[in-house]
Amino acid sequence: MATRSKASMSCTQQLVAEIESKDADGNPTDPNTIVWTSSDESVAVVVPVAGGLKANIIAGNVGDCKIVVNANAVKGGKGAKPVLGVLDLTVHSGEVAEVKITTQAPVEQGTAPENGLPSRPPRPGNALPPGGTIDNTLPTPPARPDAGLPWSPGRPDAGLPSGPPPRPDAGLPPSGGTKPVDEEEGEHIPGASPKRR
Questions:
Q1: Residue 9 sits in a domain of what CATH number?
Q2: Are 180 and 171 spatial neighbours (Cβ–Cβ below 8 Å)?
């Protein structure tokens, strides 16, 4: 027959366990021999004290183990009968005492997705159109503001007669003299001799 109990502590702690033996009627008894054992001494070690009635249980690594105490009691003088007590012990991690950052060897972006690294973000302007190619066609240049004009502008004297302007004495006889004047109308008559008065 085994009586079970439970306990837990951190891997930086220890506790004191104590046994209490009774007979079937609940009367205290004195065990003949007491033996403490741990099912996994890497998780907890048992150090008996006080003749085995108590034991220091010192935590080790995180995990679970069973602390067993075997108390042999004498009944009717007919020999020892083993009686077991079992403690189910859980050792957990302690409080956070240190936080340290470690790094891996650097790699190019996007080459180690298995390590949880993000892929290289797309560069602005690198998005391709649906066809997957970039249109390199240049836009058509705007129309020239002088479209429709001749290549060489016209001369400012276009439409003017060529040669020198007419002489102011055009119509006069070749030799000098006074241009005859019509007496009635007062006009000069080409080729007429002037009248004497």
A1: 2.60.40.10
A2: no
